[in-house]
Design a protein that fits this description.
Layout: H1 2-8, H2 19-34, E1 48-54, E2 80-86, E3 90-97, E4 102-107, E5 110-123, E6 126-140, H3 141-144, E7 146-159, E8 165-176, H4 181-186, E9 199-209, E10 212-219, E11 241-246, E12 252-257, E13 260-263, H5 270-285, H6 289-297, H7 315-320
Antiparallel strand pairs: 1-2, 1-13, 2-3, 3-5, 4-5, 5-6, 6-7, 7-8, 8-9, 9-10, 10-11, 11-12, 12-13
């Protein structure tokens, strides 16, 4: 309170002079260091770097505007042509979020809703199609209306160009991390959407592909000691990393760091690469459907939960701006 009062009285204005220039300096530092940021991996992981390059202006399949007045008017009902590329020549294309949810099942005290999204990853001409559903189980008392609890899941079919199908199932959760008072104060210099609010997400599960099973998980396990205590990356909300490892041996196959991928040298076929890239992107694009419920449907009559068309978030447009300055 004292800090805010002094600032409002102009007592600290000199100390914060040139705030825009300082913010630009912070932005440059974050961009430079983000390229170096990597999650911790086993010593025997030999992942080859492939940068994640988002398209600056993602293009809609066709112009389509939702009639309802919502905060995000840039969503595309018709989908997006291309999100970006992995490395120089692995495009992420044909992206589509569904804006009508489906009721999978219902019974006294529980209902299960799904909302789909899909995209393609093309490696050396071989297309892998990822068809996902953001699943929300809603439980409560008296026709699930009171004391509601949500369970969020991700379910995907990952279909290779040869028709082989893999199944991805993950569960989503949130938790709070302890952060120091010094970090809270330092982050006041940043825009509000970049400040570390201590909220963390965890999404983890398995990928079943033929007779092989992989563990898939998010992680915040970074080694940032090399950046130093005064790095701007140490005060922003940390980005989420992802990895795929063998369920039996623990061997790592592919990692998604904030601004890049690292693929094991042992993965050589285009179909195998497409499957693993698609798996991590499915988790990266994922948005828990319970968020739509809570924001837009939770107080609308007995059947209000099916009135959210045109209000729900866009998996891909939101991902474009993920992280500080849209870097992650």
């Amino acid at each position: 309170m004292t800090f805010n009062f002094l600032f409002s009285q102009g007592k600290l204005s000199a100390a914060f002079g040139g705030a825009k220039d300082k913010l630009k300096k912070i932005e440059k530092e974050i961009k430079d260091n983000a390229a170096l940021l990597s999650i911790d991996t086993p010593d025997n992981f030999d992942g080859v770097r492939q940068d994640m390059n988002k398209v600056f202006m993602i293009q809609k399949v066709k112009e389509s505007v939702f009639q309802s007045k919502t905060k995000n008017q840039e969503r595309s009902e018709s989908g997006w042509l291309k999100f970006g590329t992995i490395g120089d020549n692995i495009p992420i294309e044909n992206l589509q979020s569904d804006y009508t949810q489906n009721l999978r099942s219902k019974k006294l005290g529980k209902r299960v809703y799904t909302r789909g999204y899909n995209f393609d990853v093309i490696v050396d001409g071989d297309k892998t199609t990822c068809e996902c559903e953001s699943v929300t189980e809603v439980k409560g008392l008296i026709w699930w209306r009171w004391f509601k609890r949500y369970t969020d899941l991700l379910e995907c079919d990952i279909i290779a160009s040869n028709g082989d199908k893999s199944r991805l199932i993950m569960e989503y959760a949130t938790y709070k991390e302890k952060i120091s008072i010094a970090k809270k104060l330092a982050s006041k210099l940043l825009p509000e959407n970049m400040r570390d609010d201590a909220k963390r997400t965890k999404i983890a599960g398995t990928l079943q592909s033929g007779d092989q099973q992989y563990d898939v998980s998010s992680t915040y396990d970074y080694d940032i000691a090399f950046l130093g205590d005064k790095s701007a990356l140490s005060i922003i909300k940390p980005p989420v990393g992802y990895y795929i490892s063998s369920s039996s041996s623990g061997e790592y196959f592919v990692v998604k760091d904030p601004s890049k991928f690292r693929m094991s040298k042992s993965i050589k076929s285009s179909t195998e690469q497409g499957k693993l890239y698609s798996t991590l992107l499915a988790a990266y694009f994922y948005s828990p459907h319970s968020t739509d419920f809570i924001m837009h449907g939770g107080k609308q009559g007995l059947f209000g939960y099916n009135k959210m068309r045109g209000r729900m978030s866009d998996h891909f447009y939101d991902a474009k701006y993920r992280g500080a300055f849209g870097l992650f």
